[in-house]
C-alpha cells in the first residue's frame, strides 16, 4: 500500500546493497552494447585531396544518413558526399535506447507549450514520418530489428494514475489498471499504465546506422570517415569545406553535427551537451523471463520528470535482454563534449539500484554493458533549423534525446530548405523559429542545476510545478514531456 506522500525512485539508492550492485556491474563493458557487435562494418577511408560535389553532408549519424538517403531518392543523379569526423554512428546514434517515436516535439505537452497553434499538425506529420520510416525499412529490407508494438507509460505514484487514464483518451492508447499493467510487465512499482500501440517502434540503434549507410552506398553516396570539417566558407556560388587533409567544394551543404560545435558559430550557444546513461543486462534465464513477463516487445517509461526508460531486446543468439537507462541527466560545467564523460560510475550504480528496486525478482541479474553519451539539448527540447550562405547551407540540431525518428523528418526539412522552394515544411513555425540560446558560464551551469532541483521537487510534490518551472514554461525554456 502506498503512503499519501509521494515516493520516488531515489528510495532505491539504499534499497539494494552495495555488494549486490558491485557484483552486478563487475565485468560490465564500458562501451555501448549496440556498437559492441561483430556486424560493425569496417570504416570507410579518410579524405585526402580535393573533390567537388552537388551535396555535401557533414555528420555521419542519423540526421546525415537520412539526408543522404532522401537526397538520392529525390535525385538519383545528384552527387552526394558524406564526411564523418570519427566513425559512422559512433556518438548519439550508436548509444541511444532505440526508441523510435512519432513525436517531433518531445511529447504532446511539450509541443503544446512551445507551438500550440501547430501542435496538432506536427502530431500528424510525426505519425506520417514514422509510417514512412517503417516503409523505408521494408522497402530496402533493412535489418534493424524494427518492432512496432508500442510503448507503455507507467504510473509509479498515486497521482500519476490519473495521468495514465488521461493519456489513454488518445486514439490507439489502451489503459491498464494496477492488475492489468503487471500482466504486461511485472513490477511492484507499477500502479497503472497507458500503452500507445502505434506511436513508438523499437530499433537496434547501431544496425540502423549501418543499414542506412548500406542503402546510401548502394544508391551511390560517397563516404569519408575520420574526416573532420574544420572550416566552411562561401566562395562565389560554391561552398568550400576544409578538412585536415583536403577540401570539398559543394553546391549545397547540410550540417548534421548534432551535439558537436556547429560550423555556424551563431548556433553554438543554442546547444549544450547533457549526458545520459544506460545499462544492458546479460541474457535472462527462462525463469527470470517468466518472472518479469514482458511478452509484448514494447518500450517502457515511467511518468516522473526524472524518468527511466527501459526496453527489451533480442540479441544475435536469440536471448532476451533488458536495457535500463535515464534518470540522471548530467551537464558538466563549461559545456564540453569529452569521452571521459561517457563513464559515470555513480550513475551506473544508481541505475542498477533502481533496476533492482523496480524488478526485485531479477535480483541476481548482472549487466554486460554500462555506457553513456552526450545528448544535443536545446532550450525547447526539439529540433531547430537554419538556412545560411545565400541558401546554400542548411543546419539541423537540438533533438534532445528523441531523434531516432525525428532525424528523418529533420533531414527532409533540410533538403526542402536547400531546394530554395517554399513547401509545407519550410513554412512551419517549428522550422522558422529558434530556441532561446543558453547563457554563458557560470549562468548556464547554475540554470541547469536550478532547473534540475525544481524538477526533483515536482516529482516529490505530486507533479506540481513550482513558480520557477511555470516561469520557464512561459518564457519558452520549460520542459514537460
Secondary structure: elements and pairs:
Elements: H1 18-25, E1 49-58, H2 62-74, E2 80-83, E3 99-101, H3 108-114, H4 119-139, E4 151-155, H5 160-167, E5 173-176, H6 178-184, E6 192-196, E7 200-202, H7 205-219, E8 222-224, E9 231-235, E10 238-243, E11 246-255, E12 272-281, H8 286-292, E13 299-302, E14 308-314, E15 320-326, H9 345-358, E16 367-377, E17 384-388, E18 393-397, H10 403-419, H11 429-432, H12 443-460, H13 467-475
Parallel strand pairs: 1-2, 1-11, 2-8, 4-13, 11-18
Antiparallel strand pairs: 3-7, 4-6, 5-6, 9-10, 10-11, 12-15, 12-16, 13-14, 14-15, 17-18
Helix pairs in contact: 1-9, 2-7, 2-10, 4-10
* Number of H- or I-type helical stretches: 13
* Corresponding CATH superfamily of the largest domain: FAD/NAD(P)-binding domain
Backbone CA Rg: 22 Å
Mean pLDDT: 93
- CATH topological fold name of the largest domain: FAD/NAD(P)-binding domain
Topology, number of strands = 18
How many domain regions? 3
Poorly predicted spans: 1-7
Alpha-beta content class: alpha/beta
Distance between the termini: 28 Å
> What profile does the largest beta sheet have?
8 strands, mixed
Fraction in beta strands: 15-25%
CATH architecture heading of the largest domain: 3-Layer(bba) Sandwich
The geometry reads as: globular
Overall CATH class of the largest domain: Alpha Beta
Helix content: 25-40%
Overview of this structure, please?
By secondary structure, the chain is of the alpha/beta class. It has 13 helices and 18 strands. The protein has 3 domains: 9-30 and 151-197 and 274-374, D-Amino Acid Oxidase, subunit A, domain 2 (D-Amino Acid Oxidase, Chain A, domain 2), CATH 3.30.9; 49-141 and 203-271 and 379-438, 3-Layer(bba) Sandwich (FAD/NAD(P)-binding domain); 444-481, no CATH class. The strands form 3 sheets. Strands 1, 2, 8, 9, 10, 11, 17 and 18 form an 8-stranded mixed beta sheet that branches. Strand 9 (231-235) and strand 10 form a beta hairpin. The longest helix has 21 residues, at 119-139.
